Amino acid sequence: MQKNVNQYIEYTDIKNGLVILVDMGSLKEIYSKFTKYMKGPVAIINNVSTQMAIFVGNMLERGMYLEQIVEKIKGSNHTEYNIIYPEDHKEKAILTCCFTGMGTAIQLQKLLENSIPSEMEIKVIPYDYQQLEEFSFSDTLFKLFDVLAIVGTANPGVKEIEYISIEDLISGHGEEKIRKVFQKRIKQPGD
Q1: Is 77 in the same domain as 62?
Q2: Domain range spanning residue 106?
Q3: Which of 116, 103, 176, 191 is closest to 146 using CA atoms?
Q4: Is Transferase tagged as a keyword (predicted)?
Q5: Is the model's pLDDT at 124 over the cut of 60?
Q6: Is residue 48 located within the same domain as residue 95?
């Protein structure tokens, strides 16, 4: 079984996360065997019943984040859990967001993708404004990506990340902030 899990983790895109349900066993023993293969967060939940497996499946189907799933399970069951994040190189990213919804965030993504040279290898990710505002820097996205900046129509208040308003970007007032973001990317050899 361990070999199958290792192969799955190594050859499957799990950047958005993976849930492993275990009926019995030691969490330390389980996750220590495949951490070197991880490319995304893995939640391992121990002492799982059939009812809990169905509950987890329903939450995954609704697109809930690993942390949210674990919190719900903690509240309804006494269970052991662990979420492990990859320790190797994180992909660089710029987030786009809009207070009114994802439409403008997606348009900003397209605009930035067309403006950023591909050799810089910076991913542009449209993201939900309310999610950023509510979870701030503790959001799972910041564990998966090295977020260089947030560009949007309103500041979601993530203090740890540079915010650049679309108005400043268009008017040229955000030029110095953008320059700093790109300098961070250029200064890091080996990326």
Answers
A1: yes
A2: 91-187
A3: 191
A4: yes
A5: yes
A6: no
